[in-house]
Amino acid sequence: MKILVLAGGLSGERNVSLSSGCKVCAALRERGHEVAFIDMYLGTQEAPQSLFRTPIPVELTKIDRQAPDLEQVKSSRLEGVNGQFGPGVLDLCRLADVVFLALHGACGEDGRVQAALDLLGIPYTGAGYLGSAIAMDKDLTKRIVAPLGVVTPKWELVRYGADDIPALTRRLELPCVVKPVASGSSIGVSIVHDKEALSAALTDGLAFGGVCVVEQYIAGREIQVGILEDRALPSIEIIPKTGFYDYENKYQPGAAEEITPAPIPSEWEKRLGEAALTVFHALGLSVYSRADFMVTEDGTPWFLEINTLPGMTPTSLLPQEAAAVGIGYGELCERIIEASLAARKAGA
Hints:
Blueprint: E1 2-7, H1 14-30, E2 34-39, H2 70-75, H3 89-95, E3 98-101, H4 112-120, H5 129-136, H6 138-145, E4 155-159, H7 165-171, E5 176-180, E6 190-192, H8 195-205, E7 211-216, E8 221-228, E9 231-232, E10 236-240, H9 247-251, E11 256-259, H10 266-282, E12 288-295, E13 301-307, H11 317-323, H12 329-345
Helix pairs in contact: 1-12, 4-5, 7-8
């Protein structure tokens, strides 16, 4: 099969995406496929067909401790190129039998790329454009799933400017979690226990457009559940060695202990899987995803968010969950492709 791995893009999760893409590309080549790798935002000036033979830039598999400087990325682009698709990208997409989306974050996981490829008749991996767009919006996701019995922390969507921060700081309850409404990899997320930290977190949120979800803080065990082909995979428990499961702890090897299957009672496992599938179906998702929960001492799974294009980096969680049921990394990539082609054919 001729496959294009689309990675990079222009989001705070750009480096995570490049790492995912390199690993996916290598795995699919090892399984005998003709695979090209391309940065969606920067594109290429090479002949499209030649990229199916170009060596994989393995140096991109390592993820820096900090999120990328997007202004620097913009400055490295060819002058006169506009839009999110760099030069040669769509030509390369048209050459492939399927596009493997190794994108994360804005303009990758939010439905826009999916919609563009749908309009061009190009099959791609993962959920469709509408489910992707809804799942990217943390507030809208909660509005849909909370009435279905999915337990989620109390939350409020706040739209604000710098002048609103003092009043919000006085009004909002503590402890809480402040997170951008449409971001991933814990970028911009703050857990706050006092008013000073809350003011600082809201100030940081201005960099994300001043649109944040302020969520009740739930103390518990961080457990995540992958979905593959409409079935819940074994859960995985995350235990950061310091702090919480932020950007650095997610992608630096050894920064967190990750245990799968999670050491929890079977009843807890069942409740987590059912909750993850309820969210998956309610949002109209397909193929695969990963849902994030905090589980309290009584076994209640508190739903936080769902990711429609889970990471596929060397430290990512979904591949670990798949491995726990005997699905190796290369097989996982192929199953994602096969299920995605079926979903596109069915119009999902």
